[in-house]
Amino acid sequence: xxxxxxxxxxxxxxxxxxxxxxxxxxxxxxxxxxxxxxxxxxxxxxxxxxxxxxxxxxxxxxxxxxxxxxxxxxxxxxxxxxxxxxxxxxxxxxxxxxxxxxxxxxxxxxxxxxxxxxxxxxxxxxxxxxxxxxxxxxxxxxxxxxxxxxxxxxxxxxxxxxxxxxxxxxxxxxxxxxxxxxxxxxxxxxxxxxxxxxxxxxxxxxxxxxxxxxxxxxxxxxxxxxxxxxxxxxxxxxxxxxxxxxxxxxxxxxxxxxxxxxxxxxxxxxxxxxxxxxxxxxxxxxxxxxxxxxxxxxxxxxxxxxxxxxxxxxxxxxxxxxxxxxxxxxxxxxxxxxxxxxxxxxxxxxxxxxxxxxxxxxxxxxxxxxxxxxxxxxxxxxxxxxxxxxxxxxxxxxxxxxxxxxxxxxxxxxxxxxxxxxxxxxxxxxxxxxxxxxxxxxxxxxxxxxxxxxxxxxxxxxxxxxxxxxxxxxxxxxxxxxxxxxxxxx
Length: 490
Ligand code: UD1
Ligand code: MG
Prior knowledge:
Helices cover 24% and strands 29% of the residues. By secondary structure, it is an alpha/beta fold. The strands form 8 sheets. A 9-stranded parallel sheet has the order 14-17-20-23-26-29-32-35-38, with no helix packed on it. The model has no long low-confidence stretch (mean pLDDT 96). Uridine-diphosphate-N-acetylglucosamine is lined by residues 12-15, 55, 57, 79, 82-85, 87-88, 107-109, 145-146, 159, 161, 175-178, 204-206, 232.
């Protein structure tokens, strides 16, 4: 005999979300680090449910694919036709015949829901021994939502959809958030009795409350501490509004934890990011994905970090980084681009208009200006002059360059990989290096300089250059004539 599940979570995610006008199913739209569905799953995760069932329909393959990434234990169940929220839950429960105890049902489009609120709903429900408990909230604008209808004694009578409501019911501002706890056995029983006798001709999950109450079962309302948590998302305007609300919540959390956020309205931090104490986040900054900002580091202004680690005391100014690691007290920018596997060791410097990809920049090494560093290992304390290009790509394959410790690469050098510059070696400015340079040697590939006298007068006569050269020649001659006269007068 399999053990009965004592808690099951069902997430309803089969709807199309027509008003999003998107090829992407609504629940897969991103919101500060997770999809809408990902946020809902995260809010339910601390319940420690034995089983999570996600009802999929529109874009089922995409939603299944996403689930496999973010919550591989969750079980997708297909609702081929969207015949209503009651129908969706019925299908979900058919997939978990062993479920017993409590089932928590959550609409897939309420991303601001907090884990604490779901936990409090379940605790209230189980503590009261209720057959069904709905999460409710007083909202400023209840348009489009189901209303909580209470009897004279204040007890839940029924939940009425706006389109089926009387004018008096529509005036109610207490709404159904679309989040519920049920006793599974009594829910199964009631779902079997749902009708489609309503404006949409659908099986409404919300009708379960009236049915249970009429059967004398205890049904309850649990009020959300903050109605913002219950906000759903129907179009992209609402999605943007939720994004702002979540931004404020996340920023407030970090500021209370000891992080300075200089302009919270222009700072967007994914819920998946970690920021340590005394970090300073300057304006117009986005921290995304698995980004970690260490203690006392400064990031911004005008910086985007995606899946990037910035160690303690480092600084990143007006830059863009993806999948990079910035070591302790290293400095980046302004205007740097760090690409995947760019790894900067302690106190390394990557300066202005420098792009780094799949390369290690050693401790205290400097790449201050206008360079491309690709597929390279740069030793500690090496200095890479302005406009150095690590020529890593031959059109077919990528090759590595190694620059040894404390090597000095002069400006405007091409290091044509595969090539190695030894420890302490120098490269003369303007060289194109194709062969290894031994430690301590000077590598130089420049052609000797020539000056062809009088070339401009002959080949560019009549130009401003020719006139300037002539004036300079006369001035030089005049000066040497005067100097000669002065000597004669001695
Ligand atoms: C639902 C509630 C309403 C509540 C509101 C909160 C019902 C009948 N009404 O209305 O009282 O105030 O949520 O946002 O439940 N879904 C399926 N399969 C279906 C239909 C829907 O999986 O056949 C999913 C949707 O993808 C969505 C969720 O269920 O995630 C809610 O469906 P939606 O159509 O948005 O219901 P509302 O009309 O908003
Ligand atoms: Mg809805």
